[in-house]
């Protein structure tokens, strides 16, 4: 166990879940993460949204390594968002070429741009205008077919990218169906950049299997697997799973931090309960079904608190 190679674990951005309070609480209670990413920042009718500005504000973020992510379809949009990140003191930016939401994909944002190599090239060439910023890309295999990412390789290989994260699905799949690891392998064999694997990692064994198959991987990015087991990264690094009581103790501490934060910042108990319940969509899937249901069904703060303390006993 001692000299086994351990891959760095990156916490995937998940809109609506991994906001600043979540990331801060996660690092302070569980740790084990090399890099956190913000959910994407975008322009809406040419303007930033206040919530997204608050999310990237350095004073609201305590994690050691945070990379803000952007989504853009045109060089101009990209320039505006990168200028904001520079202004806030960031030196790294992640570019989202993976989001599958039809509303954005239709406008050639996220994975919707992948079938158009010329547009990708024009967008990504803009990074050359920002020598003080290091750029990475988070992308899918394509929108419709995994051939699309292969067609983009000559463009990607020519750019000074710090890293590429490849989610081994196409956009049309959204988050469903299986990942295509054969298609990932073809990209992996030809990609000159530091490459991270992303998609459906839920256990230490999953990471070990990936490293066996892809020994030159530079890391993995995990989203839903970490929402389900927030200790997954630290367990992997230590080579040891937490006992049930250690896990419950940590989840209780994590939950308290989040509840206290949102209680102080959200307006009214209804908003608070709705926000807190969203965490349980993924957290601890092995929890007794009845106890989980009680949490998810609660509408009042007091019943929510009681249900959670029963669930975490
Ligand atoms: C609710 C939700 C929100 C997401 N938001 C983002 C986002 O803002 N930026 C991004 O690059 N990916 C986003 N993703 C994709 C994840 O980062 C990740 O690529 C995907 O969930 C696959 O990895 P996983 O199987 O480890 O979760 C989101 C996924 C989900 C389910």
Automatic annotation (TrEMBL):
InterPro entries: Aldolase_TIM, DUS-like_FMN-bd, DUS_fam. Keywords: Flavoprotein, FMN, Oxidoreductase, tRNA processing. The keyword Oxidoreductase applies. SUPFAM superfamilies: FMN-linked oxidoreductases. The keyword Oxidoreductase applies. Its cofactor is FMN. Pfam families: Dus (PF01207). Residues 11-284 form the DUS-like FMN-binding domain. Its EC number is 1.3.1.-. It is an enzyme of class 1 (oxidoreductase). Catalyzes the synthesis of 5,6-dihydrouridine (D), a modified base found in the D-loop of most tRNAs, via the reduction of the C5-C6 double bond in target uridines. Belongs to the dus family. This is tRNA-dihydrouridine synthase. It comes from Bacteroides sedimenti. The lineage of its organism: Bacteria, Pseudomonadati, Bacteroidota, Bacteroidia, Bacteroidales.
């Amino acid at each position: 166990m001692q000299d086994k190679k351990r891959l760095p674990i990156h916490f995937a951005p998940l809109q609506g879940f991994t906001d600043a309070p979540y990331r801060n609480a996660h690092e302070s209670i569980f740790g084990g993460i090399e890099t956190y990413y913000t959910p994407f920042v975008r322009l809406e009718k040419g303007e930033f949204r206040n919530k997204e500005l608050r999310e990237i504000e350095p004073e609201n973020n305590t994690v050691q390594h945070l990379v803000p992510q952007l989504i853009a379809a045109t060089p101009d949009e990209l320039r505006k968002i990168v200028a904001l990140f520079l202004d806030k003191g960031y030196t790294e930016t992640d570019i989202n070429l993976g989001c599958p939401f039809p509303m954005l994909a239709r406008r050639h944002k996220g994975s919707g741009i992948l079938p158009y190599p010329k547009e990708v090239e024009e967008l990504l060439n803009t990074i050359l205008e920002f020598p003080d910023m290091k750029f990475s890309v988070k992308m899918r295999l394509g929108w419709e077919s995994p051939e699309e990412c292969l067609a983009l390789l000559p463009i990607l290989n020519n750019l000074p990218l710090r890293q590429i994260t490849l989610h081994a699905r196409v956009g049309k799949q959204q988050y469903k169906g299986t990942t295509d690891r054969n298609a990932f392998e073809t990209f992996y064999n030809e990609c000159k950049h530091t490459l991270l694997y992303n998609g459906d990692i839920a256990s230490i064994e999953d990471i070990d299997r990936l490293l066996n198959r892809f020994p030159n991987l530079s890391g993995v990015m995990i989203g839903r697997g970490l929402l389900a087991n927030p200790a997954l990264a630290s367990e992997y690094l230590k080579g040891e799973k937490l006992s049930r009581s250690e896990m419950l103790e940590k989840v209780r501490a994590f939950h308290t931090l989040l509840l206290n934060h949102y209680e102080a910042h959200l307006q009214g108990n209804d908003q608070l309960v709705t926000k807190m319940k969203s965490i349980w969509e993924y957290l601890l899937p092995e929890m007794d079904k009845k106890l989980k249901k009680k949490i998810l069904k609660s509408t009042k703060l007091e019943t929510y608190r009681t249900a959670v303390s029963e669930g975490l006993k």
